[in-house]
Design goal:
It is built from 3 helices and no strands. The protein starts with 15 loop residues before the first helix and ends with a helix. The chain has one domain: ACP-like (Non-ribosomal Peptide Synthetase Peptidyl Carrier Protein, Chain A, Orthogonal Bundle). The chain has 94 residues and is mainly alpha-helical.
């Protein structure tokens, strides 16, 4: 039997809560002021990320979760929840 990767390992499949928490942590780096982030917050409209910050965030997200977001998926990722769920779809099952 193959042992499971340790919790927090990039090889481990993140849960929705882990994906959401990491997404929020990465987003906070791009906010001008400290504030709560909710899953329904829109990344550009509510959180105020401009297009450059949004692309930097996407790059950090890809590196953190070891995924590649297809360019055609970007349009569908408007809320924090959208991003957290996309990570779960893109992360390969180990």
């Amino acid at each position: 039997m193959t042992p499971l990767p340790p919790p927090g390992s990039l090889l481990a499949m993140p849960s929705y809560d882990e994906s959401l928490r990491a997404t929020c942590d990465l987003l906070r780096k791009h906010l001008e002021s400290a504030r709560d982030i909710s899953p329904s917050d829109r990344i550009q409209e509510d959180l105020g990320l401009d297009s450059l910050s949004a692309m930097e965030f996407a790059s950090e997200l890809e590196a953190h979760f070891a995924v590649s977001i297809p360019s055609d998926m970007y349009e569908a990722l408007s809320t924090v929840d959208d991003v957290a769920r996309a990570v779960l779809k893109l992360k390969p099952h180990m």
